[in-house]
Specification:
Two copies of one chain form a homodimer. The first copy, chain A, has about 650 residues and is of the alpha+beta class. The first copy, chain A, folds into five domains: about 10-30 and about 180-320, Molybdenum Cofactor Biosythetic Enzyme, Chain A; about 30-55 and about 145-175, Molybdopterin biosynthesis moea protein, domain 2; about 60-140, Molybdopterin biosynthesis moeA protein, domain 3 (Beta Complex); about 330-410, Beta-clip, CATH 2.40.340; about 445-645, D-Maltodextrin-Binding Protein, domain 2 (3-Layer(aba) Sandwich), CATH 3.40.190.290. The first copy, chain A, has 17 helices and 38 strands. The radius of gyration of chain A is 35 Å and the shape is flat. At the A-B interface, β11, α2, β15, α3 and α6 of A face β11, α2, β15, α3 and α6 of B.
């Protein structure tokens, strides 16, 4: 194995080389015996053979009489055969077939002589009007399982029915693959255990929780070590201990530059460094090393990079060397809703939202920020852009590995449009009343809703577009953009827009004009959002030069992001809705009430998701919930204001 | 709710009525708080909001200097701006952005005056050749998560990334749905705990293990009560106790007729009987009752019926009333390989094997015996034949609900043909070396292999067809049945056929002729099997009238089934292979050595599964394993004897 340092090794080569090295050094699964009752979901270590047959005896399959079939031969509807008590034995279902018998006649088929009846069965003769074949109404030995037969091969997951089959086959203990131990070592001076009140500069250590969950899902057992400060001796000692105790060790670096050089040095001291630098993004600084037959994986500190590295480098070890978690994830073909550029240098993993609209699966790339862990929470799939590709254009067909069952994705309401926290509340109410549905929302502003509907990419989207000429909301825009119709404008809410300011409004800000001066700062919404259009409109109306407002170019995608920045003191004001200001306890200077509608393309109207949405909007629960948020007025939500035909 | 007794209620109506009754009586989920670290796979009970933003402070995203972006404005490649030490602060990645700063300049972008260097950073002026925008190289508060935002709705499964997101959002405890308790009561005088040495008549109690695994997979917690004998008072007392302690109680009847009447009486005494008799097969005698807001489900004793009832009646309660286990199982369209008749009276659930052959998904119905638990182990899917349907013809297109991921099924080698235990050994070796492949084998005899290949339904099948005229194996049959070619004849093994007899051959049986007399009994293989053809051939050759052999019509589908019956003393002899006789410790009277080949249709040849099969046949492991079984001779397994083109 060549020693490579700060390389840019293609992923496939690194995985192959690493697994080969580990195999050469003796990494392999260990078997352990567990009681069958505790084996659910475990992986068989060896082929499993039946110890006894099932049934293990010839069992009567009916209540009736057991006979030698031969005594019934010749019986027909016209010429009955009479069987004497000495030639039959009364049996119940499940009884062992008595010696000398090879068939059972059902109690319903017995005919009694006058004066006899079922009560006398056992002592009276009975007449049969049809014969029974040898082994008729008998569950023969081995009908289900023959002793010595292979019930399961090795390396298969044990399911409930198999547990039953094992017990039926006289097997009470099963040899399964011991769960490989995966040690997780968080490091970093700035890293602290999770808390509800972290100090500025504290980086909360939640990677170990994520990685633990991941490896647990793949059939391994996580072992989390305490956070180690950035002292080489301490890191080395913990890594050595973990390498002794575990099959795989994840050394999770802090987020500062230079940390991974330092990790690679320690990994090379405790074991043998094989690779440092893999051609993947995120995750490039990953480290692969062996200490004896223990794998050491240096995992970057940012959670998204970490997840990608653990998935790309640890899962294959569990699969290929321990037989756990054989990847059954499905891949689907999807149409890309936005361009996705990528570096030639790396294989890039891009999280995407998926939605099925008009029978087409649409993939929308999510934030690629290395620190944006919610991109994994929202992700429905993972798209891979190969090394040496510059990425994909809008409308290109891409392959996406599913992170959720496709059946779930098919029932997901794809909301692309203006942001309002009420969308999350709708998602909650809708999912609670129709659990098979879910909501995948992307915040791209009101114009984004129109573009998405034109392209056939959403089921609905929020719009609040003020027409400067008429002062009317939405209608003029829809008439212009859908001259041939094909959409419905659905009433949602009226909401209070205004300037969010620090609590108590200490600077006495009353309008945008108050921000166009030295020493004041603003935080804006992105172009194309209804709120941005409103701010631009007010500037124009009031004759304010936006370039005089510091931060007017500072764009955020949601009302809550704007509110969070004002609360943090990073800006003095920002346009937004009352509910966001209230959520953050901010001051609020009302500007206007606006009409927030939902745009629903005709192609989506009859889907169960849109119908569930409409039902939710019309429900009392929605009214109650929205009114409790503050800053909203509700009239007839769910009503179709106008169908553009 | 109408009281119904021994009815034949359609399943849908029963489920709806039962769930409605339970809801009316107050059945609903209970929430409990668990630490985030222990929440993997649990279902949220409430929508979950971020307590703090993530990042919770403005974090420097690079090592470098923090500045007020404004001081860098105007810097270009030709006109640098010099920043004095008082106007910047040295920062590392992850540091909080210092007061008064709103941007970071990367250390790589700093240019030093002569004599200065990075070591003096903090005390020396630095020149910048480009400006930095406000918030450049800063991870702003809320970049990932804004405080107050909804992270998850209620009723969603918690995945690893969501656990990380919760901790990042300052959430340390999460409200999840408490696992509903499902009590399981086994009953029956004949029912005993599983053992390795059951007595004849003992029915081993493994249903509770199967049901426990099933409800555990759906997110509930099983509680298994000790086996209760058939005494009404004892059953009533246990049912009462379980109803008090659990949310759902499964009362598992014994297998004897009349047991379910008795169960329904007890259920009606402890609670209120709602339905007895559902129009499903298997599972008709199911019982549905309520005791307060506890569900009581009377489950038939046979395991297959039990599994169907638990799936059809208990899963919907967990899904619809507790929000667990929302069914995401996929349905595929498949072509039926055999006819499947069904009663008009019931909705029938039929387990099927699935395989993808030539791009077509083929469904083969498995045994419908109520006691055949292995039919669930082998099943890849469940086909439903609706009430009022007489079933389906061969070649009809049917909908099948998947029990395994389709990705797994696609990689399954479909073996349809003659039975030999070596097929299981091949499956084991193949799966061990190529874990993504598996084997689905169906035993229908050698002629079945030919029929399946003609219809495009298998990837391979075992054949050992002796041509009476020439004494040659297989070739004459393949020439006749594939006049236009399209198949390969692949060498597998030579195997010893003979008469399996009791150990030591106490009756001194030497040939089939010895069985054609009073007091002897035989067990045969099914028509179309190579072994049956051999037996028929010998009878003809030796002038034996098969009708004189008692049991010649008694047909079994495998060598092991024949061996098991001889071992049990149910027959004196049966034709079969040496390895089966050896497995059961039987006597063996050799008859001939036969050539057991594999038939591989051309359409299947290039599939990864067939290629893995050929590689396995050619491996040393195969040779070693087969020789250890006894009764086989191995020459050049995996060699193509002849390609019929």
């Amino acid at each position: 194995m060549a020693f490579e340092y700060l390389s840019n090794v293609p992923l496939e080569e690194a995985v192959e080389g690493f697994i080969g090295a580990l195999r050469d050094r003796g990494m392999k699964p260990v078997a352990e015996m567990v009681p069958v009752g505790e084996s659910l979901g475990r992986i068989t270590a060896e082929p499993l053979y039946a110890a006894i047959s099932a049934p293990h005896y010839h069992a009567c399959a009916m209540d009736g009489i057991a006979v030698a079939a031969a005594v019934t031969f010749g019986a027909t509807a016209t010429t009955p055969v009479v069987v004497q008590p000495r030639d039959y034995i009364v049996v119940d279902t499940g009884d062992p077939l008595p010696e000398g018998c090879d068939a059972v006649v059902m109690v319903e088929d017995l005919v009694y002589a006058e004066g006899d009846s079922v009560e006398k069965l056992g002592t009276c003769p009975v007449a049969l009007y049809s014969s029974v074949a040898p082994w008729g109404n008998v569950r023969q030995i081995g009908e289900d399982i023959c002793a010595g037969e292979m019930l399961l091969t090795s390396n298969v997951r044990i399911m409930p029915a198999a547990m039953g089959a094992m017990l039926a086959a006289g097997v009470q203990q099963v040899s399964v693959i011991a769960r490989p131990k995966v040690g997780i070592i968080p490091t970093g001076d700035e890293v602290v255990p999770p808390s509800a009140n972290p100090k500025p500069g504290d980086v909360m250590e939640f990677n170990s929780t994520i990685f633990s969950g991941m490896v647990r899902q793949w059939g391994a057992e996580p072992v989390v070590y305490p956070i180690v400060p950035d002292k080489p001796d301490l890191v080395r000692a913990t890594l050595q201990q973990a390498a002794d105790e575990c099959d795989i060790v994840l050394l999770n670096a802090g987020s500062s530059a230079g940390r991974d050089d330092y990790s690679s040095r320690v990994a090379g001291e405790v074991g043998e460094l094989l690779y440092h630098g893999i051609a993947i993004k995120p995750g490039k600084p990953a480290i692969l090393a062996c200490a004896g037959n223990t794998a050491i994986v240096g995992v970057p500190g940012y959670p998204v990079s970490g997840i990608v590295v653990v998935e790309a480098l640890v899962k294959p070890i569990l699969e290929q060397l321990f037989g756990c978690a054989v990847d059954q994830s499905q891949t689907v073909e999807a149409t890309l809703a936005r361009p996705c550029t990528s570096s030639l240098k790396y294989q890039e993993f891009v999280r995407v939202r998926l939605g099925v609209v008009e029978g087409k699966t649409i993939a929308t790339p999510l934030s690629r920020g290395a620190g944006v862990v919610t991109s994994f929470v929202k992700a429905d799939g993972m798209m891979t852009v190969p090394q040496n590709s510059e990425g994909y254009e809008t409308g290109e067909s891409v392959q996406v590995r599913l992170l959720r069952p496709f059946a779930e994705i098919e029932k997901s309401l794809v909301v692309i449009g203006s942001h309002d926290p009420l969308i999350d509340e709708v998602a909650q109410l809708m999912h609670a009343s129709a659990p098979e549905t879910s909501v995948a929302s992307t915040h791209v502003g009101s114009m984004g809703a129109i573009v998405a509907a034109k392209r056939g990419e959403n089921h609905c989207g929020g719009i609040h577009l003020l027409d400067e000429a008429t002062g009317v909301y939405n209608e003029p825009y829809l008439e212009k953009h859908f001259p041939h119709g094909g959409v419905r404008q659905v009433e949602c809410v009226y909401r209070q827009q205004g300037l969010m300011v620090a609590p108590g409004n200490p600077l006495g800000i009353q309008s945008l004009a108050d921000l166009a001066c030295e020493g004041r700062s603003y935080v804006n919404r992105q172009k194309g959002s209804g709120t941005r259009i409103l701010a631009d409109y007010i500037c124009k109306q009031d004759g304010i030069d936006p370039s005089k407002i510091y931060g007017y170019d500072h764009e955020e995608f949601t009302h809550t992001a704007v509110a969070a920045l004002i609360e943090a003191g990073s800006a003095d004001a920002g346009m937004g809705i009352y509910s966001a200001a209230k959520m953050y306890g901010l001051g609020f200077v009302p500007v206007c009430e606006e009409q927030y509608d939902l745009l629903v393309p005709d192609y989506a109207w009859d889907t169960p998701m849109v119908q569930a949405l409409i039902a939710t909007l019309r429900s009392d629960e929605f009214r109650t919930r929205i009114e409790s948020l503050g800053g909203y007025r509700v009239d007839q939500p769910g009503r179709v204001r106008r169908h553009y035909e």
